[in-house]
């Protein structure tokens, strides 16, 4: 594999590893780094797009006796379309007249500057500051390339990436596809607040039938609403100022609590806790004790991903940890529901209460299908939407995720609302014979 192909593949891997995230004003410390490519940001440019890069404390060390060529080190932008073309050319080298030894010489990149343009050839302690307009409306990735062999770079990189608001001319530090997120999160925060108000009214009206699980469900929707309020405020603050602030602590706290409570509610409802029995079996306790630590690790990975960026060396690893833990949690919470369904099937053969067991079994099946559908949609379909949707409409995947969340919560709260005769306890002797027949047919089919 020639050097050109290797560099292109590195760009591809970096691009695949980069999940869409809002851009901020960031200062990054690069310390004795020898990587050929460093990805700093991914940003959707629209009207008045600009990239500002400030370098300070620049230091270059080499293992060779002669100093490196400073033109082999520099910054550039690369769009998705140009990336695909570069990939095609790298896979068809015979038909590629544009083969180059360094990615900074590629015709597909938008060159910003190299270290030769920095004062004194990028010597120790030098600084550089320049702002570049981005005329083409597209999604670009900001890279630093080091094509000089045996060279390590130390520097402080301060980046500001933004668009301009057409009406006011103010800077908008959110990508063009995410600038609607503050309003979107505010809207859904209002929706969840309304759901909470309705739930409190229902619980108060049926207070004699309220179980502990209903209080846990109220806590879940409250935390979800607070999480969205913090997310909306945080996005708005970044949109206006480009910098994070103290609300990040609350954002990550409610994100963690939301995840823990959601999986806890699924496990508790799936085992019939508070409806069928006031206790959990040992294996169900183990599921909860496994999910909570996993959520802690998942939240740590989320913080690292959100607060650092793709420039850190272990960023891809943290993304993989986040994905692995999230999938593990989704799988873990399904087991208690499956155990309950299996237990009901066995019980229906011996306790002589076919109508009650059939109703419970139907309810658990609906719950199981909806839980699997919700987890599948939010983990796979939403990710696919994020990848295939144009950079201008990245908010669509966030809207789809929140709409699915509202639908799931409404179903959950409706099916397990406090009732004098909850479906868990329905027992109509007149339907007993028909239920027995249905259970026998089901057993025959299975």
Describe this structure in words.
It is found in: Membrane. The chain crosses the membrane at residues 181-201, 213-229, 249-275, 287-306, 318-342, 363-383, 395-416. InterPro entries: CAND6-7_N, GOST_TM, GPR107/GPR108-like. Mean pLDDT is 76; it is low at 1-23 and 424-437. The protein has 446 residues and is of the alpha+beta class. It has helices spanning 3-17, 80-91, 181-205, 212-241, 247-271, 282-307, 315-332, 334-347, 354-388, 395-415, 432-445, and strands at 26-33, 37-44, 49-62, 73-79, 110-114, 126-134, 139-146, 151-164, 171-172. 36% of the residues are buried. The chain is 53% helix and 17% strand. Strands 1, 3, 6, 8 and 9 form a five-stranded antiparallel sheet that branches. It has a four-stranded antiparallel sheet with strand order 2-7-4-5.
Coarse morphology: elongated
> Structural class, judged by helices and strands?
alpha+beta
Largest pleated sheet: 5 strands, antiparallel
Average pLDDT works out at 76
Helical segment count: 11
Beta-strand residue fraction: 15-25%
Report Rg: 28 Å
Order of helices and strands: HEEEEHEEEEEHHHHHHHHH
Low-confidence parts? 1-23, 424-437
β-strand number: 9
Q: End-to-end distance, in Å?
A: 55 Å
Proportion of residues in helical segments: 40-55%
Organism: Acorus calamus
Main location: membrane
InterPro entries: CAND6-7_N (IPR054103), GOST_TM (IPR053937), GPR107/GPR108-like (IPR009637)
Subcellular location: Membrane
């Amino acid at each position: 594999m020639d050097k050109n192909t290797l560099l292109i593949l590195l760009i591809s891997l970096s691009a695949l590893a980069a999940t869409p995230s809002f851009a901020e004003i960031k200062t990054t410390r690069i310390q004795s780094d020898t990587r050929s490519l460093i990805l700093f940001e991914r940003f959707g440019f629209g009207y008045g797009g600009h990239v500002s890069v400030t370098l300070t404390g620049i230091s270059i060390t080499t293992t060779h006796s002669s100093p490196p060529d400073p033109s082999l080190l520099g910054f550039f932008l690369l769009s998705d379309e140009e990336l695909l073309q570069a990939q095609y050319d790298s896979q068809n080298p015979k038909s590629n007249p544009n083969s180059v030894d360094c990615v900074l010489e590629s015709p597909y990149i938008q060159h910003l500057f190299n270290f030769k343009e920095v004062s004194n050839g990028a010597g120790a302690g030098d600084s550089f500051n320049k702002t570049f307009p981005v005329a083409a409306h597209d999604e670009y990735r900001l890279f630093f390339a080091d094509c000089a062999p045996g060279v390590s770079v130390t520097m402080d990189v301060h980046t500001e990436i933004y668009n301009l608001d057409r009406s006011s001319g103010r800077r908008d530090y959110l990508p063009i596809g995410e600038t609607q997120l503050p309003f979107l999160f505010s809207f859904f925060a209002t929706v969840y607040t309304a759901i909470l108000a309705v739930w409190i009214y229902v619980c108060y009206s049926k207070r004699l039938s309220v179980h502990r699980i209903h209080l846990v469900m109220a806590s879940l929707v409250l935390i979800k609403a607070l999480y969205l309020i913090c997310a909306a405020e945080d996005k708005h603050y970044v949109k206006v100022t480009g910098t994070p602030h103290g609300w990040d602590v609350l954002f990550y706290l409610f994100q963690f609590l939301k995840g823990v409570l959601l999986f806890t509610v699924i496990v508790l409802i799936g085992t019939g806790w508070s409806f069928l029995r006031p206790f959990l079996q040992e294996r169900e306790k183990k599921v909860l004790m496994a999910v909570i630590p996993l959520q802690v690790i998942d939240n740590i990975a989320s913080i690292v991903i959100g607060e650092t960026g793709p420039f850190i060396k272990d960023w891809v690893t943290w993304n993989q940890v986040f994905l692995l833990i999230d999938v593990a949690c989704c799988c873990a919470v399904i087991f208690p529901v499956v155990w309950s369904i299996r237990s009901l099937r066995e019980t229906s053969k011996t306790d002589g209460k076919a109508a009650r067991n059939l109703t419970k079994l139907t309810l658990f099946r609906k719950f199981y299908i909806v839980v699997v559908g919700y987890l599948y949609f939010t983990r796979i379909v939403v990710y696919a939407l994020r990848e295939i949707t144009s950079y201008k409409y990245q908010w669509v995947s966030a809207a789809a995720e929140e709409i699915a969340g509202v639908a799931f919560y409404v179903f959950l709260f409706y099916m397990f609302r406090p009732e004098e005769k909850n479906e868990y306890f329905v027992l109509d002797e007149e339907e007993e014979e028909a239920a027995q027949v249905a259970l026998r047919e089901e057993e025959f089919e299975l």
